[in-house]
Amino acid sequence: MNDKDIVKETVSNYFKYLYETNTDAIMNLYSENAVLMPADLPTATGKGELLPAYQQTFGAIKFVSATTDYDEISVYEDMAIVRTTSDVNLFLINEKLDVKSKMREFFILNKENEEWKISRYMFNRGL
């Protein structure tokens, strides 16, 4: 498999683990000093902040399903950029409410010890 395919597989696995609520597997996809920049929430820097951010998210939201399109996958030596758009179905646990939304996601991955790791991730609702 070439780097572009591996990068896409890494991001695909991220979405898979998100919908499985698999926090450990998600953490394994991130670099140690990764930065998560969610829409309308504080930035989380490093795995020490990412873990509670995902635990809090999974306590409030159940990710039901999604269809994701890969708008860009660009690889530059040991760095890659992935842009996606997703149609998502969520369940807000406290409100007991189903929500459909369009999301835009932006990933930067770096190759560390021959493995592609997510180093930056940002998302927001699409217009």
Describe the model.
- With 127 residues, the chain is α+β, with helices and mostly antiparallel strands.
- The protein has a single domain, classed as Nuclear Transport Factor 2, Chain: A (Roll), CATH 3.10.450.
- The protein is 31% helix and 53% strand.
- The protein is built from three helices and six strands; from the N terminus they run ααββαββββ.
- It has helices at residues 3-20, 23-29, 47-60, and strands at residues 30-37, 44-45, 61-76, 79-92, 97-112, 115-125.
- Strands 2-1-6-5-4-3 form a six-stranded mixed β-sheet.
- Strand 5 (97-112) and strand 6 form a beta hairpin.
- The longest helix has 18 residues, at 3-20.
- The protein starts with a helix and ends with a strand.
Alpha-carbon Rg, integer = 14 Å
Give the fraction of residues assigned to helices.
25-40%
Number of strands: 6
Order of helices and strands: HHEEHEEEE
Quaternary class: single chain
Into which percentage range does the β-strand content fall? Answer: over 45%
Distance between the termini: 35 Å
Query: How many alpha or pi helices?
Result: 3
The CATH class label is Alpha Beta
Largest β-sheet summary: 6 strands, mixed
The structural class is: alpha+beta
- In total, the number of domains comes to 1
List the helices and strands and how they pair.
Layout: H1 3-20, H2 23-29, E1 30-37, E2 44-45, H3 47-60, E3 61-76, E4 79-92, E5 97-112, E6 115-125
Parallel strand pairs: 1-6
Antiparallel strand pairs: 1-2, 3-4, 4-5, 5-6
Helix pairs in contact: 1-2
